[in-house]
Amino acid sequence: MELQARKQREAALESALADKEFIEGEYRKKAEEAKRREEALENDLANMWRDREESKQHGSERERQVSNAPRQPEVVVVAKIEETPKEEPLVARLKARTQEMKEKEMKSQANGDANSHICKVCFESPTAAILLPCRHFCLCKSCSLACSECPICRTKISDRLFAFPS
C-alpha cells in the first residue's frame, strides 16, 4: 500500500516535471524568438540611421554637384535701359547665395570636431555613455540603452558608464 502510494506520488512528480520541462522549453523558444526579433529590429534601426546619414550625404553631394556644374552661357537679347534694373537685384542675390554656400561649407569643415560629441545613432543628442568593453564614447543615454552592439566596432555591449561632460 505504502509502496503503491509512493509510486503514484513518483508518477505524479514525474508528470509534473515533464510538464514543467515542456513549459520551460516553450519559454526558451519564445525567448530565442524574442532575441531574434530584437536583433532584427536593431539591425533595421541601424540600417535606417545609416540610410538616413547616406541620404544626408548624397543630398549635400548633389548640392555640390549642382554648384560645381559647368554652366552654359545663355544668350539674352536685352533692351539695356529697361532690363538692367531687373538684373542687378538678381545678381546681388546670386552673389549673396554663393557667399552663403561657401561660408556654410567652411563651417561644416570646421565643425568636424564639434560633431564628434553627437550621438552616432540618432545624430541629435550629445554623447553621454561610455560603452564597455570597447570604451567608445559615441552614444546618448537612450540610444546606449537601446543598442546591444557598439555602432563603431560592433562589439557586444556588456555594460555602460554614463558620463556627464562639463
TrEMBL record:
Keywords: Metal-binding, Transit peptide, Zinc, Zinc-finger
InterPro entries with a match to the protein in the record: RING-FYVE_E3_ubiquitin-ligase, Znf_RING, Znf_RING/FYVE/PHD
Ranges for domain RING-type: 119-154
GO MF annotation list: zinc ion binding
Residue segments, region Disordered: 1-72
Biased composition (Basic and acidic residues): 1-40, 49-65
PANTHER family: CASPASE REGULATOR, RING FINGER DOMAIN-CONTAINING, RING-TYPE DOMAIN-CONTAINING PROTEIN
Protein name (record): RING-type domain-containing protein
Taxonomic source organism: Brassica oleracea var. oleracea
